[in-house]
Design goal:
Number of helices: 20
Order of helices and strands: HHHHHHHHHHHHHHHHHHHH
Strand content: under 5%
Number of strands: 0
Shape: elongated
Distance between the termini: 21 Å
Length: 378
């Protein structure tokens, strides 16, 4: 992985000395070193003793960071590249090797809060690949600590709010339900006016005569609400799992919505999760035929998801204004996990205890075989 240079001391020293209109000998005399030492600093052959850096910074009236040219911030594009390179490494190399590489980068850019948030997301998306449950817990703990660091030290309110939500997600993974409730009940209240912000913004664009912006944000609002509804229905199925008629009505409505809006192609990840939960629900009630029907949909959607260009977020003819918005995401429109990791996770889900009634079923075996081939092809 090629990373941007973070130290530019030699170039900075030359620039600062010339701005002050002094010679190498003048600087050497002030600092108390030889002219040859200053020459070596400027040509990059050596660096000054660390105790001389405050004196140099004071002489040029700059901070230490400005003097050495240290930039703890990464650009959005650099963050995206590092994230996706590491995601690919997690799929290709031993977990601990890639984990250590990511830890090194976190230490290097510990003041770059957008980067730290993405590293916490990276760890949350890949901790399950760790070879031991204790290591998995350690990775989650480190991810939570990164979020806490962002919350306590970052001045960007939006970034801090994202870190709060992410830390709550991590706490949920660790079974800290009461802590999550205590945190999120203070943030999410259905009666708050913040939930109406998208509609108000769209009206403002219309009043300002910015119809294209209004159309774009309307599509974004519709799209996000559809995906949110599909995602919430997965949890609702789990909550009502003992009530088959209620679950069947949820499945009927959400399936219709998926088909009407082509969500299986717009957001195959969420739709795959819904199909999986529908299959689990039917198996819990020993309904093998509909369970297999949704497992087929699940496997087909995974295959679509893994096909070329389908992993990236995209719009369609109806949602024709989304692509620019996707490009503004912190990680761009690319997926947060490598294809191989996605395929392996999809296959592992078929080991769910609810599917025990299907273990000898020929069609279930065929579905598993198809997913195994997908894993091998990655």
């Amino acid at each position: 992985m090629n990373l941007p240079d973070s130290i530019h001391f030699s170039d900075n020293l030359i620039r600062l000395r010339r701005q002050k209109k002094i010679t190498q000998e003048d600087l050497a005399s002030f600092i108390g070193v030889t002219k040859a030492s200053v020459s070596k600093w400027e040509t990059g052959q050596s660096l000054p003793d660390i105790l001389l850096l405050p004196q140099l910074a004071s002489f040029f009236d700059v901070t230490l960071d400005e003097l050495v040219g240290f930039k703890p911030q990464l650009s959005k594009e650099q963050i995206q590249k590092i994230y996706h390179d590491l995601a690919a490494d997690f799929a290709e190399y031993p977990f601990l090797q890639t984990m250590e590489k990511s830890r090194t980068l976190v230490k290097k850019y510990y003041a770059c809060y957008p980067f730290l948030l993405q590293m916490a997301i990276l760890w949350l998306n890949h901790f399950m690949l760790a070879p031991d449950p204790k290591i998995q817990q350690e990775v989650l703990r480190e991810a939570s600590e990164l979020c806490s660091h962002i919350i306590s030290d970052c001045s960007d309110i939006g970034l801090c709010n994202d870190a709060v939500i992410l830390r709550a997600t991590i706490d949920l993974q660790n079974g800290k339900a009461l802590e999550v409730i205590d945190t999120l009940e203070k943030i999410w209240t259905p009666t708050r006016l913040a939930g109406q912000s998208d509609g108000i913004l769209i009206q403002a664009y219309l009043l300002a005569g910015k119809n294209e912006k209004a159309a774009s944000y309307t599509q974004i609002s519709m799209y996000t609400h559809l995906i949110s509804l599909a995602g919430s229905s997965i949890q609702y199925l789990s909550i009502l799992s003992g009530d088959l008629p209620a679950c069947e009505e949820i499945i009927r409505r959400i399936t219709a919505m998926i088909e009407i809006f082509h969500l299986d192609h717009l957001h195959p990840n969420t739709v795959s999760s819904f199909y999986f939960q529908a299959a689990v629900t039917y198996c819990l009630h020993s309904q093998e035929a509909p369970a297999l029907s949704y497992l087929r949909k699940y496997a087909e959607n995974i295959r679509y998801l893994l096909a070329e260009d389908h992993l990236s977020l995209h719009g369609d003819e109806y949602f024709s204004l989304l692509d620019e918005w996707f490009g503004e995401f912190d990680l761009g429109s690319a997926p947060p996990r490598d294809k191989k990791v996605i395929a392996e996770s999809a296959l592992q889900l078929l080991a769910h205890p609810a599917f025990s009634i299907l273990q000898e079923n020929a069609e279930f075996k065929q579905i598993k075989n198809h997913l195994e081939k997908e894993v091998q092809n990655q």
